[in-house]
Description:
Elements: E1 2-3, H1 6-26, E2 33-39, H2 43-59, E3 62-68, H3 74-86, E4 92-95, H4 105-111, H5 123-130, H6 139-150, E5 159-163, H7 170-178, E6 187-191, H8 198-203, E7 207-210, E8 228-231, E9 235-238, E10 246-249, H9 254-257, E11 263-264, H10 271-290
Parallel strand pairs: 1-11, 2-3, 2-4, 5-6, 5-7, 7-8, 8-11
Antiparallel strand pairs: 9-10
Helix pairs in contact: 1-10, 2-10, 6-7, 6-10
The structure holds guanine.
Amino acid sequence: xxxxxxxxxxxxxxxxxxxxxxxxxxxxxxxxxxxxxxxxxxxxxxxxxxxxxxxxxxxxxxxxxxxxxxxxxxxxxxxxxxxxxxxxxxxxxxxxxxxxxxxxxxxxxxxxxxxxxxxxxxxxxxxxxxxxxxxxxxxxxxxxxxxxxxxxxxxxxxxxxxxxxxxxxxxxxxxxxxxxxxxxxxxxxxxxxxxxxxxxxxxxxxxxxxxxxxxxxxxxxxxxxxxxxxxxxxxxxxxxxxxxxxxxxxxxxxxxxxxxxxxxxxxxxxxxxxxxxxxxxxxxxxxxxxx
Length: 291
Ligand code: GUN
């Protein structure tokens, strides 16, 4: 069994990006600028956004954080999006999800200029991605593709099973791996809450991607010998053993599944850091496109 070390891989990517930023600066260009919009004080969102800002600093990007309280009106948030769309100093921006119930995430996502949509959530980017055209791809699936690429994992002709069909992970993941590309060319099955015979389907997977958000869902009996297992789960379970008071828990029971695997991602230190690195990749791309 070999660990897919997302932390180390993300480190390499960040070093590569930092080098490019240095070259941009030396060439008299301004550095890429990412803006994060955060509504409310959800614990998960707070920490994700803080990481995004920290990552920008690490590679030499400019970053800004715009905060709103939970009761911000949809109209005000849409105005903020519009201002960011028109601000030539902003290369890319994200509106951290989830948003409070009175605000339509769909409306907000549609309002973002696809050229600045470094989350890759806008239908124009999703559509282009699905056609295999250049597009911003959402960070988690892109990070997983990059991990697969850098570890030279063969996907062509393989049976891939994706657990979960969310717009930001499961579905784009399934599309990317079925595209006529490398990595890609896989035979992909998407499973979800209505899937029958889930265990039997998982047992046929050469590559199993767990993106359900159900802690410890994937057990050893569901996994084929020699499979590649990618764990996207990041549920914050309460814990009295950590300083933060929670323990990041994956969708896979790592201890029992890992001995059967050829490759497996740990949680933490697997997909998470790759997701973060992907946002930097997209922001650099947005900045280059705008220059
Ligand atoms: N909420 C959970 N993941 C993400 C993400 O990648 N981007 C944004 N904007 N919100 C999220």
